[in-house]
Design a protein that fits this description.
10 strands; alpha+beta; minor pseudopilin epsh fold; four-stranded antiparallel β-sheet; 36% helix; 2 helices; 2 domains
Length: 156
């Protein structure tokens, strides 16, 4: 039988309070661990992939602008293995880790460092090429038109 005295009720109430305190403390510790624990980024989002595509297309446009302003040929060297892209005379940029690069150019493009470079002529034309950037199941295609040198970006 349960004790009916006020003393017995107080003991049971104290035991219940202690249990609630322990559960609350464990919940706070678990929440703090979840918030403070570093989480690795396993995938690249659509916005990050788009930002990379814009950055790469900017390098292609920079190469075309250099050819037009200097009145001479300008090459944009692409190394898909390392993810480096470099306009003649400029610092190279690196495509961020986690983005796969597929680079296809015309046979008319010069070979530089074991890969074909995108060549822009003084009148803005190019040898043409297609670069596909892919990450997390998404693909963005950059096309450089051989006749106009225009750079187009599209989701694939």
């Amino acid at each position: 039988m349960c004790p009916v005295s006020p003393e017995g009720n107080r003991k049971r109430a104290r035991r219940g309070v202690v249990l609630i305190d322990v559960v609350a403390a464990l919940a706070i510790v678990a929440l703090a661990a979840f918030v403070l624990m570093p989480r690795p980024r396993s995938s690249i989002g659509a916005a990050e992939l788009s930002a990379e595509a814009v950055r790469v297309s900017g390098e292609f446009r920079k190469g075309r602008a250099k050819a037009l302003t200097t009145g001479s040929v300008a090459d944009v060297t692409v190394d898909p293995g390392s993810g480096h892209i470099q306009v003649d005379g400029a610092d190279p940029i690196s495509i961020r880790d986690g983005v796969a690069v597929n680079w296809v150019t015309s046979d008319r493009c010069p070979v530089r460092g074991g890969t074909r470079a995108l060549r822009f002529l003084a009148d803005g034309r190019s040898c043409g090429g297609v670069m596909t950037l892919s990450a997390s199941g998404r693909q963005i295609e950059l096309r450089v038109d051989w006749l106009t040198g225009r750079v187009e970006m599209s989701l694939k």
